[in-house]
Design goal:
Length: 456
């Protein structure tokens, strides 16, 4: 079912008819036709449309934030912050895309040419398969660089955020982009394969679960099409004795419960040196207990509901598995009574390798606490997962900083801070957290043909 269901109440607000085969064919045809002409527009023209889109996002931020909160339960403050971040992303690529994609000269003499260089050119229609947790930002971090590179996009969004999906296509159109530059397809997962196999689709990007990523990668591989995959993470947050403990605790709470705990780059495993473990644990648990759980439209709420009933059930299953195998619940751990899909901030200690939480991602406001004797053990625990998206380490010891940068097996390492996606920095992971990069210059080049030019 494609529908807006309010996570705070469980009420179905609005349902949508899936796109028909005819609708899908029209979108593919329009996308392919638009791609042939849009690729010839100038960077200056694209940038003008990008900035106009950013202006609309900022002007409509309050209404759009309310819509996002209704669809997936994030607090109004975080929803508005997401809308404004999207505007920033559009402006970033409007300002920088031309330089990022400028011809790259080579050593002409070395290759016996009068001129030699690499040129970045758009590849055409790109299918974007996006999740619900950041309904606009996840899609914009693809759309902004793709559009500035001269590509066009087809968005298959999560089925529980259809209004967000339709809004993004609409605001891009109202920003001035030609019809067909960015279209939303309201389709279920079962329709993705036929769209991806269509010869008019050049490539795909997916943010979502590992099984979804495997499926899309397999189809794209069979069709010899490029993919970028971001498949989640179980990010470590390491705290060493030299850290500013109060700052580490405060950041740890935010890093775990941001977006109601439903973020791929949220810190999930808190690995604390034994010398400061007890003090950190006491302060961290107190801070998690002090958070206000409730209506996401209430400005005093810190943590809203989980986005889906199934998502809450998945969290409960992982917590139950750990407790049954001997883990200790320091706070939370039981769903809240009443309507809506609420789950309290929870801290679990004593996690051991046979528990699923040791290696799996918990997509909710649940923190796992681990004790480490030294840097080596902290790194062993941190890397004891198949994921490798983000990571955090807190220390003021220069040698330890170097160790964590070198040996944390992740696509991103943040020292004395929490992992955040910035337009200015490449975003992506290693191992089962995916392949390829989004954002920065790396992201805009992912869906370009790097054409070698040699002139005799």
């Amino acid at each position: 079912m494609i529908a807006t269901i309010n996570p705070a109440t469980g009420e179905t607000v609005k349902t949508f008819d899936p796109a028909s085969d005819d609708d899908i064919e029209k979108a593919l045809a329009l996308g392919a036709e638009t791609a042939r002409t849009y690729r010839s527009t100038t960077f200056a023209q694209r940038a003008q449309w990008m900035r106009a889109t950013a202006d609309l996002l900022e002007a409509e931020a309050d209404d759009v934030a309310a819509m996002m909160t209704l669809e997936m339960g994030k607090t109004l403050a975080s929803a508005k912050g997401e809308v404004l971040k999207c505007a920033k992303g559009f402006r970033y690529y409007a300002d920088n895309a031309e330089e990022m994609l400028a011809d790259e000269p080579a050593d002409s003499a070395a290759v016996d040419a009068s001129q030699a260089y690499a040129r970045y050119q758009p590849i055409g229609v790109v299918l974007a398969i996006m999740p619900w947790n950041f309904p606009l930002w996840q899609a914009v971090r693809f759309a902004a660089p793709a559009l500035m590179a001269g590509n066009v996009g087809l968005l298959k969004h999560a089925s529980n955020v259809p209004q967000s999906a339709l809004y993004l296509a609409d605001v891009i159109r109202r920003g001035g982009f030609p019809e067909g530059c960015f279209q939303t397809l309201l389709i279920g997962a079962g329709a993705v394969e036929s769209v991806l196999r269509d010869p008019r689709v050049a490539a795909a990007t997916l943010t979502g679960s590992e099984p979804a990523g495997r499926s899309v990668a397999a189809i794209a591989g069979d069709e010899v099409k490029h993919t970028v995959l971001e498949l989640g993470g179980s990010d470590p947050f390491v705290v060493m004795p030299s850290a500013d403990l109060d700052a580490a605790v405060s950041t740890a709470v935010t890093a775990r419960v941001q977006n109601n705990g439903q973020s791929c780059i949220a810190a999930k495993r808190f690995i604390v040196h034994t010398d400061v473990y007890d003090e950190f644990a006491a302060k961290f648990v107190d801070a998690m207990k002090a958070l206000t759980v409730g209506d996401p439209t209430d400005p005093d709420t810190d943590v809203g509901p989980l986005a889906t009933d199934q998502g809450r059930a998945d969290v409960e299953e992982l917590v139950a598995d750990a407790v049954e195998r001997g883990a200790e619940t320091l706070c939370g751990g039981t769903r809240l009574d009443g309507p809506g899909w609420y789950y309290p901030p929870t801290v679990i200690a004593g996690i051991t390798p046979e528990m699923r939480m040791y290696t799996e991602e918990v997509f909710g406001p649940v923190a796992g606490l681990y004790r480490a004797a030294d840097v080596d053990e902290a790194l062993d625990i941190a890397n004891a997962t198949d994921f490798g998206l983000g990571s955090n380490a807190w220390t003021t010891d220069a040698a330890e900083v170097d160790r964590f940068i070198a040996d944390l097996d992740a696509g991103q390492v943040f020292i004395n801070g929490m992992t955040v996606s910035y337009p200015e920095l490449p975003f992506g992971g290693t191992r089962r957290s995916g392949t390829g990069r989004e954002l920065a210059a790396h992201g805009i080049r992912e869906f370009c043909n790097v054409k070698t030019v040699w002139i005799g």
